[in-house]
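Q: Entry one of two.
A:
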Amino acid sequence: MWFPRNETGFAMRKARLQAAAVVVTLSILLLAGCGQERTATTVHMVTDNGAVIIVRENRASSVVAIQVYVRDGAFFETPDETGAANLLRTLMFQETASRGPGEIQRAVEDLGGYMSSAGRHDFIQYSAIVPSDNFDEAVEFLRDGLLNATFDPERVEREKEKVLESIEDMLKRPVDRAYRLCLAELMGDHPYGRLAEGVPEVLSRLTAEDIERRYRERYVGSNVLVAVTGDVNPVAAAEKMADVLSGLKTGVRAEPVSSPVTWPTESRVVVERADVRRACQVVGFPGPGVADRDNVTMDVLLVILMEGRSSRLNTRLKEELGLVHSVGAGWYTQRHPSPLFVWMELPEENIEAAERATVELMKELSEEPVSEDELAKAKMQLKVGNIRMVETAEGQAFHDGYWNAIGGEEFASEYLERLNLVTADEIQRAAELYLGSGVHLAAVVLPD
């Protein structure tokens, strides 16, 4: 799945200030609205211990979103610790030396806000949204949870069981199971081929001591980025966050444990029978990473394939050929190259025909330019998605945190400009590079 991203395209002026070994970048955006201009300030700060803070003013509503990104996840795990980052995520902000189980979450809810977290291969994310009047109080709860977390062995075991149950439940869903099987076979030993949630046999061996050690090693200044967006004074908010993060040790910056992706040179099909209710197939093809020039082009190509009833996949596989009950496609922008995948739910007898039709459709994209109407529609959908995303405090904070966390901050700042430059010829060239050979991995999950 593509993520909407980038600024709204307004001109930006930057001034750099330096004080007390802290670098601050102020971005002044001139926003036109109802015939009037107003200014919105963005503060970018790097603290002495290496923590990164991005605070963006957004006066659209009286809320503030605070998102913490930690340089951890499957991308930074060896095979024998897969799932440790995600298990630690489920335990963070639950209990501290001074607050009992659940007190932080309940306190944030009492402020009129809520907390959540997410574990991806490239990072771990924590999010809180509160009324802007309660920003200072929420930050103090964040300080305690981030700096003073404790890990009771019994609670660790209970959380471990919950994670194992969630993995089991996920693998009962046909599309999820086929997608995970496709990744495992397509990516080989690369961390992207493993479950970000963890591998059950590895998770079962993790102890409270393992979690405590990872917390001490990974939750350090050099691994932490905080993105704040909302109805706040951005300079004061950045200083407040800097005070919180100053309590972290500098630590050692986590580095990937994987070599670059190596794509298969021959097509393969893997079949698995499982306790699922219907057949599902996922077909995976090579794709780019965040630093590749084809990143934006792949987004446009994906929209042409998957978005709406008139998309090429729906038109060909469902309406013209009648091979599938449902069909879609996805591609995640990550640090390393990631596959483009097509998923489908279908009758078992149609599996081979649907696989062939999918490969043929990809080859067509590499042989003929897409129409101008398709191109214009796809680009407009991406532009609208970007604009809608950054209209909310939560969406803007995610935009800033996500792209900085995966190393795509410079790319993201140029996204709309690069999107405008995508042509039908560029799409054809990218399709030829990634899809034209027809090399793919088909993963099929069938009911027992």
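Q: Entry two of two.
A:
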Amino acid sequence: MSRILIAEDEQAIRNVLTNILKEENSDFIIETADNGRIAIDMLKENEYDLLICDIKMPEMDGVDVLDRLPLISPETTVVMITGHGDIDLAVDCMRKGAFDFIPKPPDLNRLLTSVRNALDKSTLQAENTRLRKKVNRKYTMIGQSDALENIRKMIDKIAPTDARVMIAGPNGTGKELVAHAIHAQSERSKKPLIEVNCAAIPSELIESELFGHKKGAFTSAVKDRKGKFELADGGTLFLDEIGDMSLSAQAKVLRALQEGKITPVGGDKSIKVDVRVLAATNKDLKKEIAEGNFREDLYHRLAVILINVPSLDDRKEDIPILAEHFTNLLAEDQGMIGKQFSAEALKALQKRSWTGNIRELRNVVERLMILGGDQISEQDVNTYA
């Protein structure tokens, strides 16, 4: 059900627009304002999918309304109404973000086509916003422990810089969440965050994955392909499980970091890239260096800042908050019936040793939601966890 606000100082035109839109779709919720200042007040109080706004109005004109809209209702799509002498002004409004403009007197077909397209855009924007919130929630670090607060403070300091960061910690502790938080708070947040799981890519393909390849570089290279470095240009490259990268690939990554250039496999021309590199590992890289499995010079290039993510056993005070978070997440994403944990059940979870860390806790919470009672009890934890 779409909500439409018509800001127009002429009563006759407000009536015409309202009647046309009601005939188009009786489910439209249509409200009106006879000047720009009233429209702004209404936009502050309510959410509208579409604003149909006259340019020339008393007290505050449509251009001022359009200028203020990003601060008070950025998701609202705008169609401007313009008199014959305001065409240049209407074009300027389009540059400022208006979706379309309709000359006076409004042509029925033109108006309805513009409204349909504008509402389609508004629906798409709302869906994109919902998906962004879902993604952001997925990568939110949950907890209030001192250990997690220290990581948050460090992220606040380093995120605005371009410093390379090494994120260390056991499997399942949330190293990926730290990388996403750094990128989200950085100046590169509007550019992509490209992730590479170095442990999941065969050693013979890792160089092609990182640097791309030219057609014919090897048997299956049937066309040119961009690598992750190039795809992350202007943004952030997250090298997860970098301790599993081959020495050959390590050498090329080191060169890319030193020179700010990459060369695709089978290519002879270098490509400039502007990439911030974040790396993560569950290995003791200093031990790997001593055993000849990891390059010391690459380690020092990557570990300008070192963040150690604690195990769940080192932040058990966060378990009740995490359990509630996962129950809400599973209820929303998978349609499960929301359940609560008894105080005894939460204490039982806190007494356990979590070798799989947060990833293991999430799996246990899902299992308890499926198999446990209406309220998850200590017995449920002891039986199913």
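A: Comment on entry two: The chain has three domains: 3-137, 146-310, 313-384. The first helix runs from residue 11 to 24.
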